[in-house]
C-alpha cells in the first residue's frame, strides 16, 4: 500500500495546502448551519495525483486541524493520516473516479434540504437563484445504505440526469454537492439549504410557481458565464 512518502515533493506540497483548505472549510459548514455534532464532511481532490483529502470519521468540528485531515487514494485507501477517514469516503472516491471535472465533494444533513430528501421530493425550481445555481430543480437521488460506494453511485447516476445541478438530495439521507473545488461544493451546500428553506416556506403559503425551462436555461447561462468577476 502506497504512503505519502512514495509521492514526490509537488504532491506532498499540494497535500499540505489542501489539508488546510479542507480543514478550514469544515468551519464554514458550522457558520452556515449545515451540520451538527460530527455529521457531514468535506473533501477535495488533488490535481497532482489521484488522491483526495477528507475529514476523519466521528471527530468534532472544533477538534479538526489540517493535520487531522486524512489523505486517501481514489479507491478510498488511506495514504496518510492518523485517524480513520469519513464513513462516506468510498462514495466521495466513487464520485471523483466517475466525474473527472469534480474536485470537491460535500455531504451535510442540513435541516430543510434533508426534509425534502426525507419526503423523496425534488426541490422545484421556483426561484431565479435556483435557475442560476442549479439549472432546474434540486433532484432527489435513490435510497442507499452508508458505508460503501453505493451512495456515490446514486449521486453520479442522478447528476447525469441533471447535468447542471451541483446538488442531489439522497433519499432518507441528505444532500451531496459537488464543485470545481471544495469551496465550490461548500457554496453549493449552503445554496441548497437556502433554497430548500425558501421553497418549504413558499409551500406553506400556496402553490409554487415553477419557472419555465427556457427561462431557467437563460438564467443559468448568464450566471455561469456573465455574472461576477472574470
Automatic annotation (TrEMBL):
Catalytic activity, EC: 5.1.3.4
Record's keyword terms, sorted: Isomerase, Metal-binding, Zinc
Record-annotated Class II aldolase/adducin N-terminal domain positions: 20-200
InterPro entries documented for this protein: Aldolase_class_II_sugar_metab, Aldolase_II/adducin_N, Aldolase_II/adducin_N_sf
MF terms (GO), sorted A to Z: aldehyde-lyase activity; L-ribulose-phosphate 4-epimerase activity; metal ion binding
Record bears the keyword Zinc: yes
An individual GO BP term: pentose catabolic process
Gene Ontology CC: cytosol
Protein family per UniProt: Belongs to the aldolase class II family. AraD/FucA subfamily.
Protein name: L-ribulose-5-phosphate 4-epimerase
Amino acid at each position: 500500500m502506497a504512503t505519502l512518502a512514495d509521492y514526490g515533493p509537488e504532491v506532498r506540497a499540494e497535500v499540505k495546502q489542501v489539508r488546510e483548505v479542507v480543514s478550514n472549510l469544515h468551519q464554514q459548514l458550522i457558520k452556515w448551519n449545515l451540520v451538527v455534532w460530527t455529521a457531514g464532511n468535506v473533501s477535495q481532490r488533488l490535481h497532482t495525483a489521484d488522491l483526495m483529502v477528507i475529514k476523519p470519521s466521528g471527530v468534532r468540528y472544533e477538534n479538526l486541524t489540517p493535520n487531522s485531515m486524512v489523505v486517501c487514494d481514489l479507491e478510498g485507501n488511506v495514504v496518510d493520516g492518523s485517524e480513520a477517514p469519513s464513513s462516506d469516503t468510498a462514495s466521495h472516491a466513487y464520485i471523483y473516479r466517475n466525474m473527472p471535472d469534480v474536485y470537491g465533494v460535500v455531504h451535510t444533513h442540513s435541516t430543510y434540504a434533508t426534509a425534502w430528501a426525507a419526503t423523496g421530493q425534488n426541490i422545484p425550481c421556483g426561484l431565479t437563484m435556483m435557475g442560476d445555481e442549479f439549472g432546474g430543480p434540486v433532484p432527489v437521488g435513490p435510497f442507499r445504505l452508508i458505508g460503501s460506494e453505493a451512495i456515490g453511485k446514486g449521486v453520479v447516476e442522478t447528476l447525469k440526469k441533471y447535468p447542471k445541478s451541483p446538488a442531489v438530495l439522497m433519499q432518507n439521507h441528505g444532500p451531496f454537492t459537488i464543485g470545481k473545488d471544495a469551496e465550490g461544493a461548500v457554496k453549493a451546500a449552503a445554496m441548497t439549504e437556502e433554497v430548500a428553506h425558501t421553497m418549504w416556506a413558499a409551500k406553506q403559503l400556496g402553490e409554487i410557481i415553477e419557472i419555465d425551462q427556457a427561462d431557467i436555461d437563460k438564467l443559468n447561462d448568464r450566471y455561469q458565464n456573465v455574472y461576477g468577476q472574470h
